[in-house]
Amino acid sequence: MAMHKTLTDNFLTCSICMDVFDDPCTLVCYHTFCRKCVVSYTETRPEAISAKSLLCPFCRKMTKVVNSNRPVEEWAQEVKPSFLIQGLMDSFAPCSQVTNNCNSCHDDGEATLATSWCSDCEVSLCGGCLKAYARNPAFRHHDVSDLSRDVKVKKRRKPMCKEHPDQRMQFYCKDCKKLQCQSCCLLYHRKCESIVSLESVLPEMQNTLQTVKQKLETDLATSNTRLAKKEAQCTEINENKSSLQSQVRSATHTAIDLIKKKERQLLEQIDDVTEKQIGQLKGDMKREEMARQMIRQHSELLGRALESESDVDICEMYLWSESEEAATVCVPESGMKDVSGGKACFIHDRHLMCEELNDLHLGVIDIMFEDVFDSTSTAVLYDTVDIQVEDDKKKPYAFDVAVFVVDNTDTIVVTDYGHKCVKSFYKRNKKSCQSKLGVQSAPLCIAKLNNNKMAVTILNSKEIIIVEVKPELVLQSSISTRKGYVGLTSLTPTTLAAGSVSPPCVDILDMAGIVLRTLDPVTDGEILVSDPYFLSTTRQGNILVSCCEEEAGRVLCLTPHGDVVFRYQPIQQWPCLRGITETNTGHILVIECNVNCVFQLSASGTFVREVLTSRDGFIRIVSTCLKVSTCMSPIMTV
Q1: Range of 93's domain?
Q2: Residue bearing the bigger pLDDT, 300 or 551
Q3: Can you tell me the distance from the alpha carbon of 610 to that of 344, in angstroms, rounded to the nearest whole number?
Q4: At residue 341, what are phi and psi to the nearest 5 degrees?
Q5: Cβ(279)–Cβ(334) below 8 Å
Q6: pTM score > 0.70 for this model?
Q7: CATH number, domain with residue 49
Q8: Domain assignment present for 364
Q9: Would 377 be classed as within a structural domain?
Q10: For 128-162, what is each residue's pLDDT tens digit?
């Protein structure tokens, strides 16, 4: 009983009337009072009346009234108590001052301490009344709790009708899904077909709530697991970040050490050249000084001879000036003919150096995802880009598409077959931008060489152009080839795989356009490669070939040496296969142009499912590529 008294005094007592809560209500400030007490206090505060709010005596915070047109004494009827207060009231109210005495004895005018509580009848009983109570067959199976010890007593809260406060809401209308009292049933639910007692549907409601509770617990456990996994991934990513930063700093220090080594070599070379030039010049200066002294001495001798007016001296000096000895008294030539008058210089092409530093390969940051592509996931339209630009005279025909990330800017590159150009679309300062690169003939397929360079096949002119994506398009060079190629993919930094229609084959080329080998496998006398319009490279370095020949459309997977890994033949008639690519999990996406769908193959070349169809709103799907960021989404040209 001590615990009950403590809870009642500290948590179940109204601070206005200092008594146990009578119909408690909790305001927005989470302070709880009796309804009549908070209304009485509000009636004494004009500012609360004018604000149509209930005023808290503690913190002076106001609780807005929903129906302010009702009388002030009814303002608190819509305010509910907190779950905590209501739970404490339901659990410990029988032990309050009202239920400390036996209810039966109280009706007879006696005050007898109650020792038991019947939760079905919601009455307190003393020992004598309990014996008489137990002898009645109607009460024999009621739930009776002992109040002599500190026990938790269950008390059901009686739901009372708001419109008819003296009646319990003991009926449930299944049609309206509402609790009703008997009067409400007669007045408002006469046309309803299914009205049952509340007690009859309570077990079903409890079972439903139990099922929902179990599901919520399961969802909570699943969410906790996912959250723990995400937290572990965050920790792993941060650790990986530190490792990557260390690797980048190490690569940078290595490059800096090489640059400093080159610096020391150049400085030493400058010192050597300068010292050699200065040494030669100092030698010339010393010889020059000696010659000056000899000239000065002979000049003084000649002057004295002339001043002496002696015929003998003059005659001797004349004979000496005519001799060969006098001819040698002159300024000597420099012994450093190639250096005299010149200096060493340092030739520095700053522009070339900046370009080479920009192309300096310290390393590449790549993102590897595990289980990124869910084989059961559905495609969701993320964005649409209109590839028709202002100066297009007709509707563009997109043949191939690729996505680049340049300076953290997503750039979509499309080959426009009809307008003989390559287009790029990107956003800069949240504004849509575009770039257009015209070519001599219609461009076809794109092969990504690195993060900002690509190769494009030009069939009619028999060339492959190299284009830099800045994200503006800049033509860098062109490669002349002996054949006209359509499909193209990058195998290694120095080799390409190109698909030829005439003759039908896949050629392995170097970056000069020279054919290293030709892949044209034959099985059972059948030439497998036909119309290889689209190629792609797998993570294992194999070549995916999408053959779009209408009578023999197929998907091939070839090794760089021409061995067949697998081949897939669609079951539909007249298949027209187009774009092909591999996901990060090894799945293969292929476009079937005639039925306008994207289907998925496993890594071994077996059919999995259709990923996109015309039902998803696509008019004509031509090519596909994958953009990998925080997630992976297929990008198609339409």
Answers
A1: 2-98
A2: 300
A3: 72
A4: 80, 0
A5: no
A6: no
A7: 3.30.40.10
A8: no
A9: no
A10: 888 888 778 777 677 787 776 544 455 555 677 88
